[in-house]
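Here is one chain, start to finish.
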Amino acid sequence: MPLSTRWRVICNLLLAGVILYAWARMTFVVQSGALTATGAANLKYYTVLSNLLAAGASVFYCAAAVSGRGVAAAERVKFVAAVTISITFLVVVAFLGPLFGYATMFTGPNFWFHLAAPLACVAECALWGRPPRRIKGVLWALLPLAVYGVCYLANVIINGPGEWPNVNDFYGFATWGVPVGVALFGVLLGVAFCVGLVLRAAGRRRIEE
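Its structure:
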């Protein structure tokens, strides 16, 4: 195994470990602040799901790199995870931070979920990943966000936004109405596509040099 691959495996193991630690802490320890939930209820958050996807992708890559099998598939999953988790960071910086306060967004497990893990995952993909050769690969990377958006808005439409503590629109995307919420998710898909294009371009340029 090349030295660079060994270092990448170590970094991916650390990334997966940090994410799983943060998730365990949020799951089993009562947290304070916005957008936290004890137990399996935290799986409703895109933040948690995107981070767990990143952790799973990291473990998948490590297994593939060590065994020498399925590396190409692992690279594709890593790219999808990087695009998916990048939206977590960007939404926090542009929307949730001003709404709930940056101190709350970067406290406890949310420090790892909202800041450290997303930046590490994107940086790892940009520095070491092998991006898709075709634009179709970038489009596939939008699937997790698209599925989550459909499920989130469908729940708000069917069950209503809810009232505290049983809030369905916990991210506040439908605060100005469901059509605005749909438009916001459309914007997020566009942003995710742009992130995918940038990561793909950076990776292709690095490989070709």
